[in-house]
Design brief:
The protein has 68 residues and is of the alpha+beta class. It is 16% helix and 28% strand. The protein has a three-stranded antiparallel sheet with strand order 1-3-2, with helices on one face.
Length: 68
């Protein structure tokens, strides 16, 4: 998932609400590209991307994983 950086909290909340729906067996996992400033309890930072990854938008980013 790559939510718009300016609305990351809103999009991540919506995505988290979908985890575990439709009778899936076992834990659900959300993996997302977010601004480096994004924090959420239970979010594991998997990777911090290089500063120039999105040089045109000038936002430092990381990849996080949240398990439901």
């Amino acid at each position: 998932m790559n939510p718009p950086f300016s609305q990351v909290r809103k999009h991540m909340k919506a995505a988290r609400s979908l985890l575990g729906r439709n009778g899936h067996q076992g834990p659900s996992t959300l993996v997302a590209l977010v601004p480096i400033t994004f924090e959420h309890e239970g979010a594991e930072t998997m990777d911090i991307l290089p500063e120039d990854t999105f040089s045109t938008c000038r936002v430092r980013t990381k990849i996080v994983r949240i398990e439901a």
